Amino acid sequence: MRVIVTRVQPQAARWVKLLAPRFDAVALPLIDIQPLADTRALQVAGQRWADYAAVMFVSSAAVDHFFASNLALARIKRTQQAIKTRAWAPGPATRAALLAHGLAAEWVDSPAAEGGQFDSEALWQQVQTQIGPGARVLIVRGDTQTEDDPDGPAGSVSVQGVGRDWLAQRLRQAGAVVDFVVAYRRGAPVWGPHERSLATAAARDGSVWLFSSAEAINHLPSLLPGQSWAQARAVATHPRIAEAARCLGFGVVSESRPTLPEVLASIESVA
Fold first, then answer.
1. What is the pLDDT of residues 91-135, one digit of tens each?
2. What tens digit of pLDDT does each residue of 37-64 get?
3. Which of 159, 136, 129 lies closest to 6, judged by CA?
4. DSSP secondary structure code for residue 225 in this structure
């Protein structure tokens, strides 16, 4: 059975490799990531690292683009133990990216891997005791290339966007001051004939679409205008993502935690 992996690269390639022993997995990213033309705000944020009680990265892409503009920062973090800034990650891929850029594991907070829930809600359970009145927190995020609001009503939302807004609200309620900085741009990919043919076939041939972002789902109507999704099947790694797939018209949608064993089981359940 074919599985369409819609994550951004290079995560899509990694998931294709993980799924390949049991499925015909194919990468078809539905979000394109681009660096910023102007990184001055990122550099200013990096210079103010020590001013923050914590810096939250919404994704591994946020980590990579932030540190690409602040190459010396990870080395400073390793040597200056007097700097008490924590780094927050909503999931294992983001945590791994932080460690790869040189941050010591004891300074990185993320949801427990065995919990299987990787979002802002799970992260908050881990870090809320760190925050008190007057604390400053920086959220490093991506931004869309269009004027559309990624944090709009259900069915047209980015889980990443919803999560960061929810977390910002909790932080402010705890008395913290929250800053945001954009680290990269994200938008719809540019498809050629091969990608359109693959997606059109997968909408009706029994393939299973693996979704990890509602924003990615929202790109499908513009990538395949007029396409019916009534025969299509999907596995979504968060309830909000599953709702976006149902709103688009997917005939079968299964919800799964984003761990490999549960994703495998969910794919088999809709086969």
1. 888 999 999 998 889 999 999 877 778 888 899 999 999 999 999
2. 999 999 999 999 999 999 999 999 999 9
3. 159
4. T
Residue 71, pLDDT > 60, answer: yes
The answer to whether the CB of 126 falls within 8 A of the CB of 87 is no
Cβ-proximal residues to 141 (8 Å cutoff; 6+ apart), any chain: 58, 62, 160, 161, 164, 180, 181, 182, 183
Q: Which phi and psi angles does 225 have, rounded to 5°?
A: -60, 135
The pLDDT score that the predictor gives to residue 148 is 32
Give yes or no for residue 80 having a pLDDT over 80: no
111 exposure class (CB count in 10 Å sphere: 0-12, 13-18, 19+): buried
Residue 154, helix vs strand vs coil: coil
End-to-end CA distance of the chain: 8
Residue type, 222: S
Determine the Cα–Cα distance for residues 201 and 33; give it in Å rounded to an integer: 25
253, 242 contact by CB (below 8 A): yes
Instruction: Count Cα atoms within 13 angstroms, Cβ side, for 164.
Output: 26
Tokens of 34: 């681009």
Q: Residue written as tokens 């929250």? A: 178
Domains of the chain listed by start with CATH number: 2-31+189-246+258-269 (3.40.50.10090), 34-186 (3.40.50.10090)
DSSP label of 191: P
Q: Is 101 helix (H, G, I), strand (E, B) or coil?
A: coil
Phi-psi region of 87 (alpha: psi -120 to 50; beta: other; left: phi over 0): beta
Q: Under 8 Å CB-to-CB from 95, ≥6 apart: which residues?
A: 89, 108, 110
